[in-house]
Amino acid sequence: MSGIGRASALIGAGTVVSRLTGFLRAIVLVSAIGAVTGAGNAFAIANQLPNNIYAIVSTGLLTAIVVPQIVKAAAHDDGGRAFISKLFTLGTVTLLAVTAVAVVAAPWLVQLYAPKFPPDQQALATAFAYWCLPQIFFYGLYALVGESLNARRVFGPFTWAPIVNNLVSIAGFVVFIVLFGQTESVTDWTPAMIALLGGTATLGIVVQAAILLVFWPKTGLHVRPDFRWRGVGLNHIGRLAGWTFLMVVAGQIAGLIQSQVLSEAAERYPGIFVSQNAWLLFMLPYSIIVLSIGTPYFTQLSEHAAKGRSDDVRADIGRSIRTLGVFIVIATFALAAASVPASRIFTDSREQASAAAVVLVCFLVGLIPLAVLFVVQRTFYAYNDTRTPFLFTIVQCVLVIATALIAQALLPVEYLAAGIALGQSFASMVQVVLATWLLERRLGRIGTASWMFALGRFTLAAIPAAVVGWVVFLLFGGVDGWTASDKLLGAVGAALIGIASIAVYIGMLALLRAPELAVATQVVRRVIRR
């Protein structure tokens, strides 16, 4: 196997294991604080804050400075030692400053993201935030060290470290359950309980970063503090990542509005925590299928774009969309058929699973467009065009905000999360249509009709497959059956429904004589071999 093949297999396997352990982490967390409780939503807001802030910092600092220049630095006479020292000094100082400001501003950040929380719930979320916001620094350290390791072709630790984070979190959450049981009411939390839950979440990120430091000697670099930051790339932030940075900021603003609206959801109804877990389920097929299969196609497409071979780029676009489509279409329909058992994994009752399933299905409406967008957007990146993706992402963000506000105005509180999820999917559909149109203006005809016809054929095969999956769910007793009675049984039921749907889907594709079936079979065999 080639070095790239081994690296791809290692990264792919790490991604799968990371997602599975992340699922287990979410299951244990729900068992500790509940899915539709005031405490659950309070922790969800607090633990999401460092991710939101880090997303902006990482794009402004890491994407703009580190990623484009770290490989170039390896070609320096000193092997990049001076650059890495400057980089780590700048990065550490920036991350410490941002983290300190965020911790001080914790009460205002909670109020900004969850203005509709009652006072007791805001107080609990703020207490959690004090424990969670230090994650910003360790997320940044993990990225700094990880990019340096990747630049030196040490790929494994960066991919597998999050698994250890999940395991640490699982262990800490289990200890919480043993000591305190499930604690749902916002008024029952003691400082010790808050410290254990919030501290566990942050400890996992600390360990995740520390593991990478263990592998640092493999880089052969010796880092020392260096405050002479000239040459790191500060003067090129706008040129390197200005549009990308603005795109992330726009996305964060849209997410902020969604969070503010969702904070209105009362206890017992799907809110912030349920939406996060539904998104986790939604992203599972996207991560495994789109990222693992689509990334090699993007590499090939980029090579053709760099050589000016536009005909090959057009062929790559159609081929990659059809290959992704044959997998992502059945993943969408099978997960929709298994939405109740799958949602039961992250909820505490049948009723909660049914309500959460509606949110999941609303998200799934946008999964196929999102897979197509992956290819279209990265085609612009292959031509070093980040301005156009910014433009169609701004349209998407405006629609996300507008649909969230419409949901807030028109929908009863129990359907607020579902309305926001459906608005997100609608925005994605508009975004991919606009992005495809702009790409055709740039490249000419890109065979849109051909791959749209292929997606239609996959959908035609997936509909009866989903119907069979739903019938299996009903034969298992439906909402009142064993697949919705327990978290573990929910996972088993979702798997069985998925297997039944996939079997019918393959049969339908064979009946339709879909040429993509042979390609999909080859992809699966190649992945299994690796």
Describe the structure.
It contains 19 helices and no strands. It has 530 residues and is an all-alpha fold. The protein folds into 2 domains: 3-246, no CATH class; 269-529, no CATH class. α5 (119-132) runs parallel beside α8.
SSE topology string = HHHHHHHHHHHHHHHHHHH
Number of strands: 0
Low-confidence stretches: 1-5
Largest sheet: none
Transmembrane segments: 26-46, 52-75, 87-110, 122-145, 157-180, 192-216, 237-258, 278-299, 320-342, 354-376, 388-410, 416-439, 451-476, 488-512
Subcellular location: Cell membrane
Main location: membrane
Protein name: Putative peptidoglycan lipid II flippase
Short description:
With 530 residues, the chain is an all-alpha fold. It has helices at residues 3-33, 38-73, 81-104, 106-113, 119-132, 135-151, 156-180, 191-214, 237-262, 272-306, 310-337, 339-344, 350-364, 367-382, 387-410, 416-443, 448-475, 487-511, 516-529.
Question: Which characteristics define this entry?
Answer:
530 residues, transmembrane, 2 domains, Putative peptidoglycan lipid II flippase, membrane, 80% helix
SSE blueprint:
Elements: H1 3-33, H2 38-73, H3 81-104, H4 106-113, H5 119-132, H6 135-151, H7 156-180, H8 191-214, H9 237-262, H10 272-306, H11 310-337, H12 339-344, H13 350-364, H14 367-382, H15 387-410, H16 416-443, H17 448-475, H18 487-511, H19 516-529
Keywords: Cell membrane, Cell shape, Membrane, Peptidoglycan synthesis, Transmembrane, Transmembrane helix
Subcellular location: Cell membrane
Main location: membrane
